[in-house]
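**Archive record**
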Amino acid sequence: MDEVFSPEQMKGAIKLKANLLKSCFLRNDGNGKFTLIPLPVEAQVSVLNGMETGDFDGDGNLDVVINGNDFGTDVSIGRYDALNGLMLKGDGNGGFKPLSILQSGIYIPGNGKALIKLRDKNGYELLAASQNKDLLKVFKLNSGTKTIMVKPTDVYAIIQYKNGKISKQEFSYGSSFLSQSARYIKMDETIKCVTIFDNAGNKRAVMNSK
């Protein structure tokens, strides 16, 4: 730094140091408190771009699917191409277990960028992953669980399960790398009722017919 900047230029400068270079997630512990938790080592091998959360294996816990890599680095460095897409299986307590390609069916070997959730014409959930200058990859969940759309003004839903468990799902516009997923709620046989709230505080209940 002394070879680049003069003492006059460095006078009063704020020096910052990075003390954690891992990809992490922030867990909301409530009451304005958050915990920073590094992802498993399998998620540290390359750049992470598109990410989606959801119950992708039907066990009632939130999982994470990741699309990554970066082929635009300097030629002397080489590509960041060690990630072939990744699914992290959630345990419901803030822990995640990386699944192999054979276990998850997620395989995105290219210059992975955006990742979104959407519905097919029959209302079943899909994942679409873009790869720069490569094919768009679309994955369909084996669970065959149908979904219901929400309105543009809806902001969140309280989901009541038949086993007594309650969860909250927020409806955002845009997430992770240049991604915009469809806004919907999954309705499987484990759900008893969904109460949806809009931006004016109005609510409506949707009962599961199954």
Observations:
- The mean pLDDT is 92.
- The two ends are 66 Å apart (CA to CA).
